[in-house]
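Margin note from the TA: students keep mixing up input and output lines. Inputs are the sequences; the output is the structure of the whole complex. Example:
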Amino acid sequence: MKEEQDSTKNIEAPPPFMKSWKNLYAVVLISFLFLIILFYLITVTLS
Amino acid sequence: MNLIDWTILFGTLIFIVGYGVWKTRGSSNIESYLLGDKSLKWWTIGLSVMATQASAITFLSTPGQAFDDGMRFIQIYFGLPIAMIIISVTFIPIYYRLKVYTAYEFLENRFDLKTRSLASLLFLVSRGLATGITIYAPSIILSTILGWNLGTTTLIIGTLVIIYTVSGGTKAVSQTQKQQMAVMMGGMVIAGIMVIFLLPKDISFGDAVNVAGKLGKMNIVNLEFDITDRYNIWSGLIGGLFLSLSYFGTDQSQVARYLSGKSVAESRLGLLFNGLLKIPMQFIILFIGVMVFVFYLFVQPPVYFNKTETNKLLDTEYKSDYINLQNTHSRLFEIKKNQTYSLVDAINRNDESAIEQLQQEIAQTDADSKKNKAEVYSLIKKVNPDAEQRDTDYVFITFIMDHLPHGLIGLLLAVIFSAAMSSTSSELNALASTTTIDIYKRSVAKNRSDKHYLNASKLLTLLWGILAILFATFASKAENLIQFVNIVGSLFYGTILGIFLSAFYIKKIEGNAVFWAAIIAESIVLSLFFFTDIAYLLYNIIGCVLVIFIGLMIQFLQKERMGTV
């Protein structure tokens, strides 16, 4: 029982920075979107 | 290659192998050997995940791909960041909750033994083939440079990896990958700086980028949807998402990396680290390839980049034909070089009509060069019927060997070998753990001691290493190595992913239905591969959707039949 509780606690633990996992996922997605826009601009400008 | 190069190359390799063996000596139980005692921090996991995916093929073939086809190959990675998030949210918590050694253990828990065994076997076939290629890639370089027999070279590289992977298991794989990533990234950044530095003095970095753009090499993003086009944003986002989900979520060579994390948080952070850095890393490698393309607009490249093949012509009756073709190549190069200088001038003057005119002229010279090269290849083919037509895998290594200073040659070769060793060790470790846990322990020899399974894992690592060396001989038939690896993966990944997605998200589907659906789906994917021209990334989607759709149908029919009875 205790082991199960520890396991659930482990799974639900927040990240060491950015406060929540949702914030971290948002950082990954925003940086990805930024890269695509940057790549598109490079493609259009240089072709 | 001189003494400095050999010292740097072998010094790096011996240090990494020695470090791996020393640092992880004495793995005394199966959990330590296969899961590294679940002690790794997120940065080690992140680097290990990246090093596993970055094989020697990445550093040899990717710059060649950009040299030939431009930057558009990067779109294949567009699904990766999204996949990292999906795996962090869904896959990791389930794997942790069930305390699995391999991804396929979860399938027995959710479905049944036969589905677990089928997924394991599909993984073993596809990964076993791919591991052969990751050993073959650096072997062709050493064979080309030293004139060694390909089999001997393959054997040496395979043996080096086997030593520390058999000795230290997962921990050795992850620990050595930190050193290997440092060598890889450091070496590539230096190579990138050098190629720009080696451009003619009157060509600035801006000129080089502009020329690459006008000659179609900065084609990073293509928004057009075309089902037969291998690389556009849609095939990258959709096909790449399925490929990444399958590779990182269900391929044991990657799952083992994050299962060895200290906690769920460490594993998730490791994957998100990969999601942030993978695309920029690939951009750098492809951009180096584009800069090598620009470099060879001003410095004469060989007529055919695999010089071993052209050198053979000099000792045959075709020598004079070859020399004539080489003279034509030199003449065409001079024409193209002058056209490129005029293009740079037109770009700097912002003269659109001159730019357009010069683009057409360069395209015409290119067409003539390709025709000339085809004639060289037909001569090569007469001497060696097995010679490959595409020589793009030799572009980057030729640049390194012919134009980089001593010391850097050794370092760049160490990059390629480190990459080969890092991915091969992960793959051997994953093949051994899947065979031990999902096949041997589950179906062949149950209830043996921990020590017995530890020894079995070590023996199986060795056996898979030997098999991979044997598979490496088949890789020589592949036209382009990095594409071949992705094609092999795409043929099986879709089906495996379909099984896992059914397990995670579709509660209605049960063991029997998903098992038969997977067999039918895999047969259809293989038929499509042999009889159609569909872009290979789409096989990931087709296989996955077929498993889910057919699985649901079988489940429905089964229910109907039971209702009738």
